[in-house]
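Lecture notes, part 5. Sequence design as translation. It can be helpful to think of inverse folding as translation between two languages: the language of shapes and the language of residues. The source text, in structure tokens, appears below.
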């Protein structure tokens, strides 16, 4: 009933569309323009433009590129200048393969193609393990006058190689909805589609898309793009130094299917109905929703403060308290009986210029107010801190970055599986599992506008749940998919408790822009592991009872990624 009212309200709003705000479509999160903006921010050339609310709109990118071209063009290095002109040719001048313009608007269309190859060796494998992912599709975007924008993208994906595809966790790709498992291959697809318009000073987006919130260069603790896209209503506005965004979204529960053993048992087995006879029976679809809002304020030209709340709830319709973009969700959850999964985050983005940028994020998941300073399992925290140094020690056209992430036990999980911080079985936040930490250090060097090299080192630790001899799980909060259950320890929690896994990875690669929209990435990584899952059942989505075992040893990973355009 409420969803019908929401749609009716949006149709009414469409009749009052104005040209006051930004109706241009969003730029895909994987586009290299975001790295260019991060570099500009560290140099003090993007103050007031860059923020932790992504994706950015095309108009926002155009505004920044025009400002940099006008104010800093003479200060840019030859490589930076080449990148600026290349981006302006894409965003300001338009270079889509198919273009149609009329008095009432314009339509732009392009192909999507991507070939990914991952080769793994070592760690007791008798022969190399190879995974191929073939992607093909297209993009259509455009605008109706200056008031309504729209974008549609679709890609069909086939994964195949040396694996047998019988279960969902056999796929190497984790951003999946409901794949077709065919033994020697698996097929799945991804699609996004939305319209965007302005109602007074508010940008309104209606449709299927993704979101990334937070100050980090890549993944963030709150919302990241590790899960498939989802249907949403996104409202966004700005008042001087204040920026506000709000999302009401529909998620999909972990699929309770025989080919998804991780999710079996998360639905009521009695909740079925028959279609076309007694033999054709299917489960009732469980409802699952996400509500989120983020407020950012520029305390100074070089200092941004962000606050956000994200709540996941289900097994009922949309909650008016959560749909309200101005509601304090912590208070709303108390009003509704403390039965949902609420995450709150606070972050700082410090960019004083001189090629430096620092960020810090702190997230609390389901804080237990009565025992706030205790080790109770319900007090779940996480921390993320990092820095970006542009042209370190005088090394031109280079970037040095470092980051530390710590995720406490039980984060993202919930005692009710419907409230787990996931979409299908993919994390909505950081991909690092609960009860883990990770250090990263990397250096990127551009040799030309179209060729760059990267080296990095990563060190991670994870305390995993333990499988007892009788088949039960000793749950120490090391898996997002296993929330607290009666009988689990709840008075105390210990970081890195359980089965300890340690990994150290050293990698190097190159990124070559062959054509403006055709890019190749090649990367090689050597990983040393202690107590890590062994192949063949070693992926992050493999249920604990289905693991092949644990051990020590090295693993080599060679990756090729050739892509045309961004999904």
């Amino acid at each position: 009933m409420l969803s019908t009212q929401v749609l009716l309200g949006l149709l009414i709003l469409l009749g009052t569309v104005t040209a006051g705000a930004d109706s241009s479509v969003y730029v895909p999160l994987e586009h290299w323009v975001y790295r260019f903006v991060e570099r500009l921010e560290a140099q003090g050339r993007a103050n007031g433009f860059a923020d932790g609310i992504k994706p950015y709109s095309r108009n926002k990118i155009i505004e920044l590129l025009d400002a940099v071209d006008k104010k800093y063009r003479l200060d840019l290095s030859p490589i930076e200048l080449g990148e600026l002109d290349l981006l302006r040719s894409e965003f300001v001048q338009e270079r889509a393969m198919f273009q149609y313009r009329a008095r009432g608007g314009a339509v732009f269309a392009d192909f999507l193609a991507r070939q990914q190859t991952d080769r793994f060796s070592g760690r007791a494998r008798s022969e190399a393990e190879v995974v191929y992912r073939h992607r093909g599709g297209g993009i259509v975007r455009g605008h109706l006058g200056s008031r309504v924008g729209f974008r549609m993208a679709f890609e069909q994906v086939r994964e195949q190689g040396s694996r047998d595809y019988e279960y969902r966790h056999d796929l190497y790709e984790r951003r999946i909805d409901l794949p077709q498992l065919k033994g020697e291959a698996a097929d799945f697809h991804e699609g996004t589609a939305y319209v965007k318009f302005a109602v007074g000073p508010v940008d309104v987006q209606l449709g299927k898309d993704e979101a990334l919130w937070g100050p980090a260069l890549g993944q963030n603790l709150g919302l990241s793009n590790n899960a498939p896209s989802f249907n949403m209503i996104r409202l966004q506005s700005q008042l001087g130094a204040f920026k506000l965004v709000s999302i009401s979204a529909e998620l999909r529960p972990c699929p309770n299917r025989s080919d998804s053993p991780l999710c079996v048992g998360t639905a009521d087995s009695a909740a079925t109905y028959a279609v076309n006879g007694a033999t054709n029976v299917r489960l009732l679809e469980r409802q699952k929703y996400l509500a989120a809002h983020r407020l950012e304020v520029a305390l100074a030209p070089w200092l941004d403060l962000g606050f956000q709340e994200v709540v996941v709830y289900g097994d009922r319709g949309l909650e008016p308290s959560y749909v309200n973009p101005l509601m304090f969700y912590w208070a709303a959850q108390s009003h509704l009986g403390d039965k949902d999964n609420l995450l709150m985050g606070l972050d700082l983005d410090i960019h004083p210029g001189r090629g430096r940028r620092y960020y810090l994020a702190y997230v609390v998941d389901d804080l237990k107010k009565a025992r706030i300073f205790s080790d109770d399992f319900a007090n779940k925290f996480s921390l993320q801190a990092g820095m970006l140094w542009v042209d370190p020690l005088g090394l031109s056209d280079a970037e040095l970055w470092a980051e530390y992430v710590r995720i406490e036990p039980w984060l993202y999980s919930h005692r009710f599986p419907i409230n787990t911080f996931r979409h299908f079985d993919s994390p909505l936040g950081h991909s690092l599992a609960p009860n883990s930490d990770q250090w990263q250090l990397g250096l990127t060097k551009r040799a030309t506008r179209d060729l760059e090299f990267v080296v990095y080192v990563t060190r991670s630790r994870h305390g995993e749940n333990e499988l007892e001899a009788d088949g039960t799980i000793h749950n120490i909060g090391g898996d997002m998919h296993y929330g607290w259950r009666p009988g689990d320890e709840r008075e105390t929690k210990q970081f890195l408790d359980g089965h300890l896994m340690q990994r150290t990875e050293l990698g190097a690669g190159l990124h070559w822009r062959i054509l403006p929209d055709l890019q190749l990435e090649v990367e090689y990584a050597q990983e040393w592991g202690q107590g890590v899952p062994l192949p063949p059942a070693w992926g992050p989505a493999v249920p604990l009872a289905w693991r092949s075992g644990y051990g020590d040893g090295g693993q080599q990973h060679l990756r090729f990624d050739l892509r045309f355009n961004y999904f």
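The translated text above is only one of many valid answers, since several sequences can fold into similar shapes. Residues 58-71 form the longest helix (14 residues).
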